[in-house]
Design brief:
about 130 residues, mainly alpha, globular, about 30% helix, two-stranded antiparallel sheet
């Protein structure tokens, strides 16, 4: 796994985030309303695929990829529409991860912190 720089968020995302994030927060944080059914993040899959050059951010296999919410929607609803929370994932990795979030999280393929970069973990001896 290698560190990926997502770059600036795509145009239109800020407006979508402002409009739709409150519904996710209301449902998961406050138990209000029904579970949101919007999936506007899928519109940004092509931009994410360019950033990750058609490679899964987790297993590094070539793929068309899906938008994975690195920090799961159910546990981090305020991050549902954050560009910094999206990773291009192959269907297998996206399905395996689902809404799981271990106590210490996962290795973030897009971290800006050198000590937390994927490369820092790949040199560790298990």
């Amino acid at each position: 796994m290698h560190t990926v720089d997502r770059g600036p968020e795509p145009n239109k995302l800020a407006g979508i985030r402002k409009e739709l994030t409150p519904k996710w927060v209301a449902f998961y944080r406050h138990g209000k309303g029904g579970k949101p059914s919007d999936t506007r993040w899928r519109e940004f899959q092509p931009a994410l695929s360019e950033v990750f050059p058609g490679i899964c951010g987790y297993c590094e296999e070539h793929c068309k990829g899906q938008v994975d919410h690195f920090r799961p929607k159910s546990k981090f609803p305020e991050k549902v529409y954050l560009w910094s929370n999206w990773v291009l994932a192959c269907p297998t990795c996206n399905h395996e991860k689902l809404e799981h979030w271990p106590t210490n999280g996962y290795v973030d393929p897009c971290t800006s912190l050198p000590a937390e970069s994927p490369e820092a973990f790949s040199t560790m001896i298990c």
